[in-house]
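>> Question from a student workshop board

For tomorrow's exercise we were told to take the sequence and the ligand below, predict the bound structure, and bring the output to class. My setup keeps failing. Could a helper post the expected result so I can at least see what it should look like? The ligand is fe (iii) ion.
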Amino acid sequence: MTEGFRFLPEYFPPAAQKALVAEILAILETNPLYRGAMPRTGKPLSVRNTNLGALGWVSDIKGYRYQPIHPDTGQPWGPIPRVLLDLWSDVSAYPHPPQACLVNWYEADSRLGLHIDADETAKDAPVVSLSLGSRALFRLGGLERSSPTSSMRLASGDVVILGGASRRAYHGVDRIYAQSSTLIPGGGRINLTLRRVTAP
Ligand code: MD6
Ligand code: FE
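>> Workshop helper replied:
Here is what the output should look like for this input. Compare the format with yours to find the bug.
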């Protein structure tokens, strides 16, 4: 396993998961999910996104980038919930707060291809992820796309941290075990990833 990878199963107890989902659903009212697209081809992404925080990760035909404004509403992104800022303080070992929380919303047939999170300039900060709702088959590889991979199931409340060398490791989501949880309306899954984007 790549150095710096941490898996904290059931980090959030069920009551805390429920409260956080309610908070996120409320924020989505004014900070809606939208469907991004692949750079160059414009092919729609399988996963819908939105962001919370000062900066949000956006993918469209022009490329990947961080921006302070929601692409559909033209408004600033909503706030990162307090419990997620606390999660970052507790597990990141990074002395500055996160600037972005990417919200990935998975339906039964959503996938996320193998990728590296490489659009941040604060390369020394980890990416901290929290899964909510249905279970997912998460694949973690190495520094090359062709590196060997291993797969694990991520359940609601689980936290994954890509720090150290694993910060540059390929990873993705091969499938969702739809309806394996009733936490999210529709039986889907939310993955939240907290990021430090710019070096302070
Ligand atoms: C997901 N996660 O679990 C996708 N990235 O839906 C990620 O892409 C990810 O879990 C960076 C760090 C942790 C992650
Ligand atoms: Fe990622």
